[in-house]
Amino acid sequence: MNDQITNLPAARVRTRFAPSPTGFIHLGNIRSALYPWAFARSTGGDFILRIEDTDVERSTQAAVDVILEGLDWLGMAPDEGPFYQMQRMDRYREVLGQLKASGHVYPCYMSVQELDALREQQMANKEKPRYNGLWRPESGKSLPDVPLGVQPVLRFRNPQGGVVAWDDKVKGRIEIRNEELDDLVIARPDGTPTYNFCVVVDDIDMEITHVIRGDDHVNNTPRQINIFLALGAQPPVYAHLPTVLNEQGEKMSKRNGAKPVTQYRDEGYLADAMINYLARLGWSHGDDEIFTRQQFIDWFSLDHLGRSAAQFDEAKLRWVNAQHIKSMDDDALAKLVAEQLVKRNAAQLDLAPLVALCALFKDRCDTTVALADWAERLLGEEVEGAEQERAQYLTDAVAPALDALAQALDECVWDRPAIAAAIKKTLADHGMKMPQLAMPVRVLVAGTAQTPSVDALLELLGREKVVARLKKR
Predict the structure, then answer these.
(1) pLDDT tens digits, residue range 175-186?
(2) Per-residue model confidence as pLDDT tens digits over 81-136
(3) Which domain holds residue 306?
(4) pTM recorded for the entire structure
(5) In a domain, 122, yes or no
(6) What are phi and psi of 434, to 5 degrees?
(7) 7: pLDDT strictly greater than 60
């Protein structure tokens, strides 16, 4: 991935995903990455990955690795990045200097204790807690004496009149009066810049045209717009996405039981199915429920983003996954099943029988894990069956027919028509109906009475396995 910030024409769409690496990335986070990725792809623009790692105490490389791994698995690799904010500190300090020179920033010596006392007093007076502008320089105003040995924070000199307004692509027109915004701290006493300031500098330098993010950032947006304007820059277009709720109706988060996105890969979900499912958590294209990655890109528009919170439903996700498994190429599906088997340290299986197994079983499986379960059960050396089914179907009365079928299968041509003919002749010779023979055959060769068509199953397993399992009772 390219880690250079490029200078491109402003007309080109440039979006970004800017996670904080303070924990694993979950589906709510990925949904916030999916739409900017799709918008960039649908318009021929660029998708940038920025790691907002200024929370040094909580940020970890392991969390960064999961972000990169998750995006790679989903096929959402960025065009540029990852960029790391902690590697851009010199640039932030340079821009801070520009704001100081232009009078948009001033030092504030109010201590944390003084600020807490101020907020307590304001709350007691039923007022909105906010900084009171004590150290804000104004014409004709006398500032307090600078306390000795105190390192100040730097505050942004927010405009005091008028409104901050933007046309949000999800929420519509939003207007905030400047008098409701206090002067934001944009640098800590040690000179480290704060989140809202870094975001603006990054978006300017990376020429971000559209910011598509969760609506928990709505309150940050007017502050960021004012910093853009102070720096003489045009703010991007904003689209604030509704929250993704978990199955209990709570905001999806690490603390509320959300899983790392890579866990869904391990549980046998397909990347394209995840894209399909997540796309529908806040966007729609008519009544279409199942669509390909390319269709999503072709259809995607910010105008079709929903305004209501979407609720995650794992049963619906499994259904979507099942539809994608059914339509997936057997060879590609077999490779994913082989990866599942490798994780289990299962015996090495040739790809050819796995391809045939996928073709036969994919209509009844909703994950590649379920397909791998069938592969282990059927293609290994031994097959175990449930005792209850063995007792139910493997009776003394059916034994002669099973012996006769084993003999016929040992001698016939090994293809589905010939296998079906051998079964049909055995039924006729023993005066039996199909279920009377097919169920015990399934139990012996597959360990369960619930399988696809018995002739197709036998063809898949091969003569040697089938005859041996029919004889081993």
Answers:
(1) 999 999 999 999
(2) 999 999 999 999 999 999 999 999 999 999 888 888 989 998 999 988 889 989 99
(3) 254-326
(4) 0.89
(5) no
(6) -50, -50
(7) no
Same domain, 391 and 368: no
468 and 426 housed in the same domain: yes
CATH code for the domain in which residue 278 is found: 1.10.1160.10
Q: Do 409 and 462 share a structural domain?
A: yes
Distance (Å, rounded) from C-alpha 19 to C-alpha 90?
A: 21
Per the domain annotation, does 305 fall within a domain? yes
Q: Is residue 35 part of a domain?
A: no
pLDDT one-digit tens code per residue, 348-375: 677 889 999 999 999 999 999 999 999 9
> 254 labelled as ligand-binding?
yes
How many domains does the chain fold into? Answer: 3
Task: Give percent of the chain with pLDDT exceeding 90.
Answer: 75
**Residue that finishes a domain, picked among 280, 304, 326:** 326
| Cβ neighbours of 397 (radius 10 Å) | 11
Residue 173 inside a domain? The answer is no
Taking phi first (over 0 means left), then psi (-120 to 50 degrees means alpha), and beta for anything else, what does residue 282 get? left
